[in-house]
Amino acid sequence: WLFFCLLLPFPPARASCPHPCHCTGHSGAMAVLCSAKHLAEIPKDIPKDAVFVKLDANKITQVPNNAFKHLNHLEELDLSRNAIEKIDLAAFRGVADGLRTLDLSNNLIQRIPKEALVKLNAKIRLSNNPWHCECALQEVLWEVQLDPESVSEITCQTSVREEYVGKPLIQVLDSGVNFCSIHQKTTDVAMFVTMFGWFTSARVHQVYTARHNQEDARKHLEYLKSLPSTQVPKETISTVL
């Protein structure tokens, strides 16, 4: 009987729920609820069959590369109301095809690499973060699918231009502002200033060298004149002159 029992197939073990989260649902459609659990980082043992993951209202500061790579069934991910400042380039690798909703609102995000979001098919909430409005952020908005209800809540806390601080980004862009053209103009001006500085330095050096050579020639001439006339051929003095 023991040998016979060993031959029987064992039912697959159910994935454990990360502490101190609560997991509900059934195999293939798991909801992992980790709201307000004082988590400082994203749990590494979220069940592979998770479809819905709530990590909101915690103390998470970073979304590292491949944080959700093993969650092939993930459709909704809530990371709102954390202290997230940094999102790595490959933070959402592995969930691009199936993810439908991604909530990053109410964090501390100032900048986000567009490479982290461009391959996602999800509707993304980016509202209520201390955004720095610049070309890079504008490129992100061009590439991703924003949740339309949250667009007006993306505000410039800082900006490449002081007059845009405190304004909704969509309002600034609708007025015809293009941060990328501003960036290009700033780069062109910086290049011009650099080239002008280099040219000025070269010109100053050239003038200094010419004057230094003239001074050496004058001193040499005075030395020749101070010698007895029999020692200094006239053709030598005329050459110096």
From TrEMBL:
Predominant cellular place of this UniProt entry's protein: membrane
Keyword Repressor appears in the UniProt entry: no
InterPro entries for this protein: Leu-rich_rpt, Leu-rich_rpt_typical-subtyp, LRR_dom_sf, LRR_TM_domain-containing, LRRNT
Places the protein is found: Membrane
Annotated signal peptide: 1-15
GO cellular component: plasma membrane
UniProt domain LRRNT: residue ranges: 16-52
Membrane topology according to the record: Single-pass membrane protein
SMART domains: LRR_TYP, LRRNT
Keyword annotations: Leucine-rich repeat, Membrane, Repeat, Signal, Transmembrane, Transmembrane helix
Matching PROSITE patterns: LRR (PS51450)
SUPFAM superfamilies: L domain-like
Entry's family note: Belongs to the LRRC3 family.
Protein name according to UniProt: Leucine-rich repeat-containing protein 3
